[in-house]
Structures are given as structure tokens and as C-alpha cells.
Amino acid sequence: MSTIREVAKVANVSVATVSRVMNEKGYVSEKARTAVLQAIKQLDYRPNRVARSLFQKRSGLIGLIVPDITNPFFPQLARAVEDMAHQHGFQVILCNTDEQFQKEQEYIQSLEAMHVDGLIITTNYSNNPNYEELEVPIVALDRVLQGAIPTVTSNGHDGGKKAAQFLLDHGATELVVISGPSKLPTIRKRRDGFEEIAGKHLVASIESPFHFQGALGAANYLFDHYDCNGIFAANDVIAAATIQVAAERGIAIPDQLQIIGYDGIELGQMISPPLTTIAQPIYQMGELAAKLLIQRIEGKEIAAVHHELMVEVIERETTKRKGEES
Amino acid sequence: MSTIREVAKVANVSVATVSRVMNEKGYVSEKARTAVLQAIKQLDYRPNRVARSLFQKRSGLIGLIVPDITNPFFPQLARAVEDMAHQHGFQVILCNTDEQFQKEQEYIQSLEAMHVDGLIITTNYSNNPNYEELEVPIVALDRVLQGAIPTVTSNGHDGGKKAAQFLLDHGATELVVISGPSKLPTIRKRRDGFEEIAGKHLVASIESPFHFQGALGAANYLFDHYDCNGIFAANDVIAAATIQVAAERGIAIPDQLQIIGYDGIELGQMISPPLTTIAQPIYQMGELAAKLLIQRIEGKEIAAVHHELMVEVIERETTKRKGEES
DNA sequence: GATTGATGTGTAACCGGTTACACAATATGA
DNA sequence: TCATATTGTGTAACCGGTTACACATCAATC
After folding, report:
1. Rounded mean pLDDT of B226-232?
2. Cα–Cα distance, A294 to A62 (Å, whole number)
3. B70 contacts A75? CB cut-off 8 A
4. Residues of chain A contacting B244 with CB distance shorter than 8 Å
């Protein structure tokens, strides 16, 4: 791989001139410019980004910290972030924390040491650490962080309300919410919104882990202990598990039991019957987070600190058609 | 952020000594060592990895190029690669090509310019480009590349055979394979293996795109034109679509129709009924690819060039229990 | 003809680590 | 006692870009 000095030699100019041509900065004569361009082509010269980073203190790297890319909520988010980053000439570094505080800290340290230009974090350690003290710009995604850190979430409270209203409107009378880990604020909001509207129709409110196996257990527990005809699951994976357990037990969906999920991941349309769900605009959330981050990186001030996007219900087949409530 | 020279000043030694302490290289007196360590702690000094990269020509970065992280096959792969990379002190840069030649080339150029230490590629442009000419070590995952590039795949031919054998053993008599895009060698192998064993029981062999919507169309086409009681889908997403279409049409699974998928992604267990499938060891494949790459990066020669892992059938509920075939 | 400003170019320092090399000081062995 | 390791440390060059600054040249203006 050739260097700028070699290019300079071939083009018979100084390195400064080569640099000027490359960055289109400062005065360069037409003659010098073509000579340099010619030399660059001849040597297949591409500037060393590491060297450039060192001087400019800008690496063109964005760190994306997620709990686990394997959780089907995150690939779409990651994709959105990567697309937006790519459009602006950034690359993204993927980090999985498994929700472990220590891994998260390790990654942040590494990323800082390699001078990433910014960080997008979806994390739980909302309060503990010193995000505000970090020198790099940060945007929080799907989780709300303390302080002056911009965040992007969707309106979970409204989502919960919409879910309850939808079930009620479609003839469900005994409602259950299978919530996620209640230490997560975003999850609590969904549940609270649901319970607010469900009111006296609420039969039970139980908790489930996010992963499928755990949700299977929660669903079994639910059916063992309660009777209901409308379930709101805190995410689509839990909803899928609930559907599976219901199918095993011969409970007809949506006739005997209606189920509504949350998230709007692709999984929802792949299962049978296809899942009615409260869809977050996942891709847009990732996109917005990346956009905000890039704006901060480029020094623009950001207006609102907290961005909350709307959710919408996607009606599929785990709920009854309107007018057929029976 | 403090620099090595500041540390040197505080510890009252030269930068060389600080560097020696940090890298545990060369002679350092106990006295100097403790002074340096003390200074490092005092200043919360962390070496600038960019500067280190520049000199060492080693960035600690691995590029992972996938078609689309949103395709449920890839998150597990990415996770495995990232885990292994992290264990060895590397970070991974995620790139989505959408199977577009041009995006792939762009990414490779960028990654080269930022001096990634290695590349893991899952790509289709098996023949076209100049992978062999690249200076960075490469490992191909799930796709076979020409030349001396190490590859990691699973035994698709055997997988196809196993699928056919399994359906036959469980009482299916009229078999169909819904294959993926036949330009992909890995996909062709699955189909060929299946057809080899299916023999005269093969009723039809059709092609489907990989994404769910397209697969829905293919499944509808299939049911409109053929009668069969055993289907092999080239991946689990296609299988899920087939199940959904079958459910819509009131075809009982597995009683009237048995379905077997391919891949072994989590989706398979989340759908109803849970999917019998030929599972690739996805995580292990990613892990192995990363391991091989890291070995190459560290200069070790690699024995075998092509690694083919075994697949196994995971029996769930879209196929009949043995002994209950009819 | 002198002053001013725009244009064009090169030298060398700088970013922050790493390390070859020179030079000491001390220890070992004959 | 003198030659030879062994141990310990600092200076300065280097990695490959970027850019402040000095210096030229040339046209326009007074």
C-alpha cells in the first residue's frame, strides 16, 4: 500500500499539495491537481484512515451497544443504525453486553480508547454509571438515561393503552398482561398503560423473562392459574410462546382467547396465526438515533433531548375481526 | 485524555519506560515500574489505540460482511463472531451488503483503508472479485469462495439427504422441495441431496426467495399446482411461510402434510406447530470462522482450507412421530 | 513603481504510541 | 583485575496523514 509521500514523489509535488488535492482544501493549480490525481490512480493510492484519525481525532467509528443481537428486536435496530452510519461515512462496531454491567463497562472503555466518534446504547444501567462524564457523544435507544443524554424511545404507555383498548373493543372481557422484567422502565410503562385502561377487567398481571423458553414457563403458569380471554404480551416473543402453549392446550385463537403482542418484529407475521401486535417503528427509531448521534458528532446542537415515537396496532389474526366479537 | 508523555513526566521516567511497563516488554526496574503504574492510575491513563495501530499496522478490528443482519440466520452468526473476537481483544465492524456487489466492494475498500486485521465474508460474488489479491486475511462463512481462502460451511448435501430420508421414514410418499435462489451453491447442494434420496417420490422442485413474503407466494403456487404430503424447505423462514399457507388452507400438519425446514434458527421453535428442521451448527460456524481468522491474523498457518460441519435433524412437531406414520 | 491581495507550493512540526540504538551501571567469570 | 554479560534507561526516529507558516509569484490598485 503506497503512502502520500510516494504519491508526492511520483507527481513531483509536496505531500501538502497531495493532501490539498485529496481534501479539496486550499489552493491547488490545475496542473498540480491533475498530476496528483494521475499519480493517485497510477499507484492505486488510498489514504490510511488510521493515520488520518490520529491527527484529526476522528475515527469514523460508531459503537453500537446492545444486550444481544440475537434477540429479534435488535437486528432491525442495528440495521437502521448501520444504514444511516454508512450513508454518512461511518462504520459501526457491534457490542453485545448480555445486560452485564461489567461487559458494558469493558466495551465502553475499549471503544473510548479506540476513539470512536460516538456511542449508541441500549442498556439498563440507566442510573449507575457515568455516561455523562464520557467525552464521546452518546444517544440512548429504547431506554431512557438520566441527564442531558438524548434518548429515542417509543410511547410505551400509549402502546399499553392501545393494546387494552383494542382487546376490549374486540370483545375480550377478562384481561391478563404478561409483562417483561419489571426493572425495565420501558416495560413498566407498557404494563401501566394497559392496566390503566383494562381497569376492572384486569384478571392478572404476571412477569416473564424475554427469552422464549422462559416465556413458555410463564404462559403455562398463567393458564394453570387464571382464566382469561384476552392477553397482552410485553413483546412478540412472549406472545409467540403464549400462542404455542395455548395451541398445545387446545385453546382456540382468537375465538376463545385473543392475544396481542408488542414490538412489531417480523416474527409476528411468520407465526400461525399471525400476531396482532403493537408495533414500534423500530427501523425509524434506529435511524433517528443514528441521525441524532451524527448531528452531535458534527457539532450541531440538538433541539429536543427526548424523542418519543408513536406506536400503532397492526391487526392480524390473533384477535377477532371487529363486528364478529360474538 | 492524558498521553504517554504526561505519564512519563509524572513518573519521572522516559516514554520508553512507560511503554515497556505497559507492554511488559524489555527490562524495567521494580522502582520504575511502580512509579509508572502509580502515574497511570493517577492520570487514569489509557493508551490511544489509534496511535498504536498506526505504528503496529494492527487495528484490532475485524470486518464482518453479511447480506442483511435482519435475516434471522445472521444474528447468531454475528454473535458468535463477536464473542470470539471479544475474547481475543478484537472488535467487529458490521456491514450489510444486501447482496449488492457494489456495496460489498465499497465496504471492503473502506475496511482496508482503516486497516482492519481481517475479514469474515458471507457473500455470493464467489467468483468475480479479487478476494485473493487483498492483503488482509479473509475467511468465508457459509459460502464457498475460490482459491486458497479458508471457508466454513455445513454439509448441505448431507442435510438434504437427511431431510428426504426423514420424511420417507416418517411416512411421507410424495415429496416436494422448496429451494432457495438456485444461484447459491449452498442451496443447490441441499436440493441435490434431497432429490438424490427422494428419487421417484419427488413430485416437484420449486424455487422461492429467502424472504417471508416471497416464500408465501411460492407456497401458494405449490399448493395450487401440486399434491404432496412431505415438504422440504430450503430454510426455516420458507418453512414458516409454508406452514402459514397450509394453515390458511386448512391442511393439517403433520397429519396431512409433513414439513421439514433447514437452518435451525430460533424461529423454528417459536412457531406453531414447532418446526422439525435440519439444524446447522450456526453458532459454532461463526465461532470457527472467527477462530480461523484470528489464527491467520496471528500468523499461524491453518491446516485444512475447507471446514465442513455436520448438520443434524431436530425433530419437533411438523413431522409425525415414528411409528405413527399414518 | 510601490502596495496589496489572491493564488500556489514546500518544509517541518504534530497527533501519540513503539522501538532501534546508544549508553550506563552492575554482575559474572576467568 | 579485566573482559563480558545482564539489566536498566533515555533519545530520537518512525508510522502516514494534516496543516501552520513561510515564502513566491502575479495581477490589480493607487
Report:
1. 96
2. 9
3. yes
4. 270-272, 274
Give strand letter and number of the nucleotide nearest A8 (CA to C1'): C10
Mean pLDDT for the stretch of residues A203-222: 95
**Does the fold of domain B156-280 match that of domain B58-154+282-309?**
yes
CB pairs under 8 A between A and B: 140
According to CATH, the superfamily of the domain at B156-280 is Response regulator (3.40.50.2300)
Pairing of strands A61-66, A276-279: unpaired
HEC assignment per residue over A140-169: EECCCCCCCCCEEEECHHHHHHHHHHHHHH
Q: Tens digit of pLDDT for each residue in A155-195? A: 999 999 999 999 999 999 999 999 999 888 899 999 999 99
Q: Check if residue A29 sits with its Cβ under 7 angstroms from strand C.
A: yes
Distance between B193 CA and the closest CA of chain A, angstroms:
27
pLDDT computed for residue B325 by the predictor: 53
Say if the Cβ atoms of A48 and B115 lie within 8 Å. yes
Lowest-confidence range among A25-29, A296-300, A306-310, B196-200?
Answer: A296-300
Residue of chain B nearest A71, judged by CA positions: B75
Q: Among all chains, which residue has been given the C-alpha cell 437427511? A: B162
Q: Where are the alpha helices (DSSP H) in B24-153?
A: 30-43, 49-56, 74-87, 101-113
Please name the amino acid found at residue B233. Answer: A
User: CB-based contacts of A254: which residues, under 8 Å, 6+ apart?
Assistant: A273, A317, A318, A319, A320
Dihedral-angle region of residue B323 (phi above 0 means left; psi in -120 to 50 means alpha; beta otherwise): left
- Which of the following CATH numbers is that of domain A59-154+282-309: 3.40.1010.10, 3.40.50.2300, 1.10.510.10, 3.40.50.300? 3.40.50.2300
The domain spans of chain B are 4-47, 58-154+282-309, 156-280
pLDDT at B129: 57
B4-47 is classed CATH 2.40.110.10: no
Q: What mean pLDDT, rounded, does chain B reach?
A: 92
> How does residue B301 score in pLDDT terms, banded at 50, 70 and 90?
confident
CA distance B248 to chain A (A): 9
C1' (C7) to CA (A28) span, angstroms: 8
Least confident of A272-286, B60-74, B289-303: B289-303
- What would the mean pLDDT of B195-223 be, rounded to a whole number? 95
For the beta sheet containing B202-207, the strands, ordered from the edge strand earlier in sequence to the opposite edge, are: B202-207, B175-179, B230-233, B258-263, B276-279, B312-314
Closest residue in chain A to residue B236, using alpha carbons only: A270
Is the C-beta of residue A52 closer than 7 Å to nucleic acid chain D? yes
Please give the pLDDT value at position B307: 92
B72: which chain A residues are within 8 Å (Cβ-Cβ)?
A: 72, 75, 266
pLDDT band at A134 (very low <50, low <70, confident <90, very high): confident
User: Shortest CB distance from B212 goes to which of A61, A110, A269?
Assistant: A269
Q: B267–A267: do the CB atoms touch at under 8 Å? A: yes
Q: Which bases of chain C are contacted by protein, using any atom under 7 A from a CB?
A: 7-12, 14-21
CATH class of B58-154+282-309: alpha beta
Residues of chain A above pLDDT 70, percent: 95
Q: Helix B74-87 to helix B282-297 angle, to the nearest 10 degrees? A: 40
pLDDT for residue A130: 67
Mind telling me how many Å the CA of B32 is from chain A's nearest CA?
24
Query: Which pLDDT belongs to residue A301?
Result: 73
